[in-house]
Design the sequence.
């Protein structure tokens, strides 16, 4: 499997705090079937600026150590960039890492809202030749209250990455339901660990892949856990399934009411 989103680099953010933890996390990922993992430390402008030079140097060090220990996984470069109006500039100037130096960039939204400039940022990234991948949209409060926000963002050209821990139910039934809805409506394009620790938010993907395969079929699971990730590594265009708008379960009631009321 290919894990598009993780915090396995030591001491850069709220993920692995030291190199020993990094090594244990990467060994755990290998044993769970992961062959490639993107290290995507947070980049928050004017706050936590893990720039591309720092990320690449740290990855080189980690890759040398795991090779010497016989841990058979490839750690690849990236950032999880917190959305801001300057994001297209940060990407195009190389301040932040795209995923394996490809045209794909992992973008984080706030947990409680969608900034008014979000569509403008997506448009400007696309204009510069980059494709944003939105990290864990199912965890955003505004989105899981109205999943068609994701449909609109996909129509603008963004792709979506779901967390395995959301599917496993770590963040509650509402977020788990949202993750399944996004997958069933072709509004999810990757499942990744977003690993931060050796325990709850660990880099284990195998059980989640089995769960997705059982519910949606092997082809969908392969697409979400392997094929689209390989396209990112190779910087190839991802052919997405036709996204479907999610029907509001209250539509029947609303439509019936509209027929009854005098306006």
Sequence:
């Amino acid at each position: 499997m290919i894990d598009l989103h993780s915090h396995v680099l030591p001491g850069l953010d709220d993920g692995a705090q030291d190199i020993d933890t990094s090594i244990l996390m990467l060994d755990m990922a290998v044993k769970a079937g992961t062959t490639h993992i993107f290290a995507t430390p947070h980049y928050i402008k004017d706050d936590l600026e893990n720039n591309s030079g720092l990320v690449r140097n740290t990855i080189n060090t980690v890759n040398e150590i795991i090779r010497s220990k016989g841990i058979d996984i490839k750690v690849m470069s990236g950032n999880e960039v917190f959305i801001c109006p300057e994001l297209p500039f940060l990407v195009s100037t190389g301040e932040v890492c795209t995923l394996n130096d490809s045209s794909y960039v992992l973008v984080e939204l706030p947990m409680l809202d969608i900034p008014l400039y979000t569509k403008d940022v997506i448009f400007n990234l696309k204009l510069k030749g980059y494709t944003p991948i939105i990290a864990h949209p199912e965890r955003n409060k505004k989105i899981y209250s109205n999943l068609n926000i994701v449909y609109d963002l996909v129509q603008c050209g963004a792709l979506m990455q779901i967390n395995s821990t959301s599917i496993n139910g770590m963040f509650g039934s509402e977020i788990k339901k949202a993750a399944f809805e996004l997958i069933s409506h072709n509004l999810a394009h990757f499942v990744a660990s977003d690993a931060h620790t050796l325990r709850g938010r660990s880099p284990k993907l195998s059980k989640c892949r089995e769960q997705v395969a059982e519910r949606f079929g092997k082809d969908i699971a392969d697409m979400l856990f392997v094929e689209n990730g390989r396209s990112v590594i190779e910087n190839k265009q991802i052919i997405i399934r036709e996204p479907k708008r999610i029907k509001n379960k209250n539509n029947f009631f609303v439509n019936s009411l509209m027929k009854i009321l005098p306006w």
In short: Residues 126 and 157 are 7 Å apart (CA to CA). Strands lie at 2-3, 36-39, 42-44, 48-49, 74-77, 80-82, 104-108, 131-135, 159-163, 190-192. The chain has one domain: 2-260.
